[in-house]
C-alpha cells in the first residue's frame, strides 16, 4: 500500500503528528516569503538600490548575487524565529544546524 505525503514527511523528519507537518510547511512558506520581502529594505538600508546598477547583464547579475547573499542570513534567522512562534523550535534548530554543517559552516555550532 502506498504511503501518503504526510506519512513520508513524518518518517523523514522524525515527527509523529500531521499537525506538526502542517505547521512546519507553514513555517517554510512564511519564511521564504518574508525573507524575499525583507531583502529590498535591507539592501536599501545599506545603500544598494537596483536602479544604481547599470542595465548591463553583469551589473544586474551583481545586484542579484548581492540580493541572494542578503536573503540567505535573513532566511536562516526567520526560519528559527517562525519555528519558535509555531512551537516547532527544536525541529528548526536541528534543521538549521544540519543545513549549515552540510554547507561547511558547522564550526558555528562548536
Q: Nutshell version of this structure?
A:
The protein is an all-alpha fold and 110 residues long. The protein has helices at 5-13, 18-45, 57-85, 89-102. Helix 2 crosses helix 3 (57-85) and helix 3 (57-85) runs antiparallel to helix 4 (89-102).
Structure notes:
This protein has helices at residues 5-13, 18-45, 57-85, 89-102. The chain has one domain (5-109). It is built from four helices and no strands. The protein is an all-alpha fold and 110 residues long.
Q: Measure the end-to-end span.
A: 43 Å
Q: Biggest sheet, in brief?
A: none
Give the helix level as a range of percent: over 70%
Give the class from helix and strand content and strand pairing. Answer: mainly alpha
Query: What's the structural domain tally?
Result: 1
Q: What portion of the residues fall into strands of 2 or more residues?
A: under 5%
User: Shape, please?
Assistant: elongated
Amino acid at each position: 500500500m502506498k504511503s501518503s505525503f504526510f506519512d513520508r514527511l513524518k518518517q523523514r523528519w522524525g515527527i509523529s503528528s500531521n499537525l506538526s507537518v502542517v505547521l512546519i510547511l507553514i513555517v517554510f512558506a512564511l519564511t521564504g516569503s518574508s525573507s524575499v520581502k525583507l531583502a529590498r529594505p535591507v539592501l536599501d538600508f545599506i545603500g544598494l538600490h537596483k536602479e544604481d546598477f547599470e542595465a548591463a547583464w553583469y551589473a544586474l547579475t551583481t545586484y542579484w548575487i548581492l540580493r541572494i547573499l542578503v536573503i540567505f542570513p535573513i532566511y536562516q534567522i526567520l526560519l528559527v524565529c517562525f519555528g519558535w512562534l509555531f512551537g516547532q523550535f527544536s525541529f528548526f534548530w536541528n534543521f538549521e544546524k544540519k543545513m549549515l554543517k552540510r554547507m561547511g559552516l558547522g564550526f558555528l555550532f562548536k
